[in-house]
Amino acid sequence: MRHSLVIVGAGPRGTGLIERIAANAPELYAGTGLDIHLVDPHPPGAGRIWRAAQSPLLWMNSHAEDVTMFTDETVDMAGPVRPGPTLHEWAGIDGRTFADRQLQGAYLGWVHEQAVAALPPETKVHHHLRRALRVDGPREGRQQVWLEGRPRPLLADLVVLTLGHLDAELDDEQRALAAYAHQHGLTHLPPDFTADSDLSGLRPGEPVLVRGFGLAFVDLMVLLTEGRGGRYEGDTYLPSGREPVLYVGSRRGVPYHSKIGYDWSGERPPLPRFLGPAEIDGLLARPGGFDFRRDVWPLVEKELGFAHYHRLFTAHPERTAIAWTDFEEKYAAADGVVEREALVASAVPDPRDRLDLAALDRPLDGVRYGSFEEFQEGLRGYVEDDLGRRHDPAYSPDLAVFLGLLSVYGQLVRLGDIGPGWHGFFSYLASGPPGPRLRQLLALSRAGVLKFVGAGMAVRAEDGVFRASSATVPGFSVAARALVEARLPEPTVRRARDPLLRALHEDGAAETADGLLRVDRLDGRLLDRAGRPHPRRFALGPHTDSRTPGAFTRPRTGGPAFRQNDATARAALAFLRDLACHAVA
């Protein structure tokens, strides 16, 4: 009897899993027939997010040279390394290009084809252009995967969920805003993938409140400006007349930090240093568990500071007051933030060379402007300063902090669900927009198409409109008949629109306090509410408590998603091998 594996989700995470199955099969499952059923209504490889059917104006937010789907020797995994080209090598484009998402989708489609071609000859892949509705079956027996529009289920010895980002039902606040909009004839766009949003209700010339200043906002900005016929001449935006006027704010009140615009040179900081496997083991071994803010964040701060100052002292020693060996010894011995800050103040004369994570994270905290116009000018200056710094190698400690963030993320994955705060902080510092997008934002601001509201943006539904205000500009408010929540839906199981996840939740799958699926940290097996791993069900991706920064990554940065893919592939192949042996016996 041929064994079968069902993978639900054909995007980059599903492709990465197939690549690892192909890489590990010669060792663990060679010569035995296997059917792999890939279930997804979207194209294999690209999936929903990177599909060709979206605006060519939408870019990736990473340089083409920083995007790979292939493992290298920096990935800590048991399986073999199978190198391959980065996006820029495959496409033959400048490595510093920010490719459009259609090109990335083509790259992912090619990687998928290569992964399938590398599978053993006895392994067949069947792609089902449908949605999976639910998974049934006993813990010790074959699983049944029911598909939309198919009367009989797929039979599976194992099921792996690689679902990626998902739609979600509205939370209480969004339901109330949607009901208010319906009652008063307003436009309300809840959290969504911007490329899928219906923007036709956002009318030319009319104010639109936008809550969210991250990558979803950048997509919205592009689609409502260039997407409506506007164009740029140098640093000047020439409107088409079809644009609405965007009033944007968020908790921080500023856009995500620009992508860094220069290459690394010289010695890399030796990471991990203060937050590595031993520290994670210690946190996991605590009898009473750990608190992220109390127990983990101090280690994150020390690790990022170490990366920053290692680069400053080794690459820019003329801006320091003591030798690196002396500083490193004192930094390692420093007990707490106050002692470290005193050391830094004595050793680093210029405040611009010191790492202040709180100021980076909340630059408008406590800042007040006397008028709305003054704030517009002030925030443009802030963005210009950020662009200048992130493109100046004289401030290369910023890039060292970025490398530190990647190292930290790779360690924190092992802790499971640590709340949304860390993920938001990481994205804000490390996963911001390309520099050219922020230059476009400045041009739109000068043209009056884009206006800044401030930090802690509050939205009230009153007097038949939506009204926004912020403490950044006391006394200012703006009314609009349209509100856009420019952010992705939260990846919660209990509010997921995906019927399969909802059914798993009802069937006893465990979830965290933040609504993420709980999985075994070693191989991705789903856990039930008693903490038992399911022998035949796995899950990888943002809907789990082992979520990673993304399904693909920068070369030579360890790729925690690749490590997870390898562990799950090996666990699945070993299970299927043992199943085949038992069948023969």
UniProtKB/TrEMBL annotation:
Query: Disordered: where is this region?
Result: 533-560
- The segment(s) forming the FAD-dependent urate hydroxylase HpyO/Asp monooxygenase CreE-like FAD/NAD(P)-binding domain are 6-165
Report the protein name in the record.
Answer: Adenylate cyclase
Top-rank taxon, per record: Bacteria
Q: Which SUPFAM superfamilies match?
A: FAD/NAD(P)-binding domain
